[in-house]
Amino acid sequence: MLGADGSVRPPYSELHNWLSAQSKSGLKRKQEEADSIFRRLGITFSVYGMENALERLIPFDLVPRIISASEWRTLERGIEQRVRALNAFLYDIYHRQEIIRAGRIPAELVLRNEAYLPEMIGHAPPLNVYSHIIGVDVVRVAENDFYVLEDNLRTPSGVSYMLENRETMMHLFPELFSKHRVAPVSQYPELLRRTLKAVAPSGVKSGDASIVVMTPGIHNSAFFEHSFLADQMGVELVQGQDLFIEDGHLYMRTTQGRQRVDVIYRRLDDSFLDPLTFRPDSALGVSGLMDLYRAGRVTIVNAPGAGIADDKAIYTYVPDIIEFYTGQKPILRNVPTYRCGVDQELKYVLEHLGELVVKEVHGSGGYGMLVGPTSSRKEIEAFRQKLLARPSNYIAQPTLALSTCPSLTKSGVAPRHVDLRPYVLVSDKVRIVPGGLTRVALQKGSLVVNSSQGGGTKDTWVLRD
């Protein structure tokens, strides 16, 4: 909200005036009202390993994060460039592998990666799109200085919270909206539906395509979102046991008999999709689904094997990937990253563990990571042994001075570190909803914003010109 000199940045001027006029007790009452709305709607998120995880509300901070129209245009251009390049990379590595032949990325990093699926070699999904729904995690480290922290091309979550955060804010603070020209986000479910229909199998008219949202079930951490999106799009929410293959097509069981399925928006991992192809003990998938998919009889969104493009070791090569497929320099930069599988870089990481953030290359949700500056000497030494045992399993990054936004705390409004996850839809075109999910580290000084690690969310306002 404030510039380096302490002055109020222009996008925040009205909000700053509004906050200055609010009492601490008034804001607390509004926060309690917001919590009540979330509890009534059942907006939950499971934090694995904690008691009563299924009943945990996702923390919501009622002070919005504001992005100017010009800032958003820069982000939008950079994100579109990135997702187009990553989809081109996915097509290439499952076909001619030109980027490997050109020596721009090591073959073993791709071909021996556990996220790379040989079953996808030679298969071209509709429109050659592998990752249709993408969450790009962006951080700001200085004014107008954005970095991409990571790409999420498998099953990015959180979009339901973006939508519900906006609904809640409009209910609680209509006077604030009257003072700002905020771009809407409510069109996301319709854009998602349009995206899914556009990638229907060959021979199926996009308008006639039957869509389902496939969930692992109620015990999944993001089940609320699966149910929410199915409801918002007006499509069925199914589990693997609701689906079966017959006569060379996929069907779901309904009270009116079988109904054909053309597009699956799946919210379960690759390894659980088909017990005949991947994990034989999976009770969540559909036997024979991959054969049907490769035959072009059904579309799976996001495509199996898309996760190789968001592997954290691959992340370090994304600038090269962008240049290789677009011929352009990246608009949005990567965070400087050390590859621990490289001896010289590992040596530096081991010598500076207390200053760095170290992550598993296949990790997600804030699990399996070390935040050096906030870790004890014992935790650092334990992580050192993990690094020495499997160095190629980790990357390391400097601890960025992430930007802060005003947030409501027990002691009043105070700065808290944030990141931003805009949501991108890719099919016949690239669609980016103006805003996204701002995640906030609720503990003072903390840099960990993941909901699974106790972080919260706030509404994100993109101002119109």
From TrEMBL:
Ranges of residues in domain Circularly permuted ATP-grasp type: 64-441
InterPro entries the UniProt entry points to: ATP-dep_Glu-Cys_Ligase-2, CP_ATPgrasp_2, UCP005522
Lineage per the UniProt record: Bacteria, Pseudomonadati, Pseudomonadota, Alphaproteobacteria, Hyphomicrobiales
Alphabetized Gene3D superfamilies for the sequence: 3.30.1490.270, 3.40.50.11290
Biological source species: Faunimonas pinastri
One Pfam family here: CP_ATPgrasp_2
PANTHER family: BLR5612 PROTEIN, SLL1039 PROTEIN
Entry protein name: Uncharacterized conserved protein, circularly permuted ATPgrasp superfamily
Superkingdom of origin: Bacteria
